[in-house]
Hints:
- The chain crosses the membrane at residues 95-115, 135-160, 297-318, 396-413.
- Keywords: Membrane, Transmembrane, Transmembrane helix.
- The protein is mainly alpha-helical.
- Helices cover 77% and strands 0% of the residues.
- The longest helix has 63 residues, at 2-64.
- The radius of gyration is 34 Å and the shape is globular.
Amino acid sequence: KxxxxxxxxxxxxxxxxxxxxxxxxxxxxKDASATLNxxxxxxxxxxxNNTDQQRKERERKERESLVLWKRPITTVEYFFRxxxxxxxxxxxxxxxxxxxVLIVVISVLSLYTLVNSKGxxxxxxxxxxxxxxxxxxxxxxxxxxxxGLGTGLHTFLLYLGPHIAQVTLAAYECESLKxxxxxxxxxxxxPSIREPGSITILSIMSKVRLExxxxxxxxxLGELPPYFMARAARLSGIDPDDDDxxxxxxxxxxxxxxxxELTLIERGKLFIEEIVEKVGFFGILACASIPxxxxxxxxxxxxxxxxxxxxxxGATLIGKxxxxxxxxxxxxIIAFNESLIETAIEWLKIVPFIGMKLQVPFxxxxxxxxxxxxxxxxxxxxxxxxxxLGSIFEKFVIAMILYFVISIVNSFAQSYHKRIHKKKNxxxxxD
Length: 431
């Protein structure tokens, strides 16, 4: 019996060992299969990511080639298609809010009737109407300066700066700031009473404060699209590669650890980003209070990090419409002080070869401005003709406006290219 029991125990032990070996082999085969499948999935994911990255790079290069001087026909076609899409989209949104449309139409008709109806209110209404149009004009120019449709139209250099310079020259020539209204500000006529003691830098700044602050407020409004774009992308989880500005921000984030490889412009952008991110309201205020061509990145950064709207817009409005505008006004007023201009013209003669030649057009420009201001209430003085500086400035203005229009066409064409490829890629992902 004892021998039988030993045999039985040995047989049971042998069967248990065989069962254990089978189970271990099965588990090992499952682990190997799982490892193989995981490796295949990982390889497929990497291949897919590489393919997507190459596709996006090809689309980006193709989009960058959509400019009028490389592909004019396709660029113009895409421009009109994008305009058609935008008009259709926003038209449907407007029609969907019929109550608001009705209120706006009634308000416009009421204002039109009020402005054009005769009565004792006419003088007050006309004054308010003219002042409102004047403010809207400068706000619109400010928006065009910073809205970012490809590039901004530098309306300070083209419009506001010359306006402040004209008022400054007129103030010193007329020895008064009480220009008759009308025709001021469309035209400047020297008043009959002179008050030389009232002409100071502060008095001239006060004379042009309204248009300067309206222009500054317009530039603040023009900074809102990048902020809203980045904020919407962060909240909705849009891929940064789908937007060039967001992709630039992501690339800067990756380059933070390798600052030796950064260019000077990239260092400036990172500096602005760090100020806005760490300091908050006062960082945005500091960036908005100085002439800053990289401020678009501040708006994108604030939107990306979900900075509250009033923190961003309040700091931008104060910085651009109050602090920055007073600095720019002060610079222009000092630069166009008549005595300083005459001194500068005299110093031009020390410039080798071209100094004496430059004195002639600058003197002609200054004399021409004085002739314009030597006017009585209705008498006009013949203006200086053939001023080369005036001709150059007119051509410069035309060139800047043409460049702005071309940049808008290129920007809209590239936007339509991005739109159609986004739809195509969405369809492929669904399939």
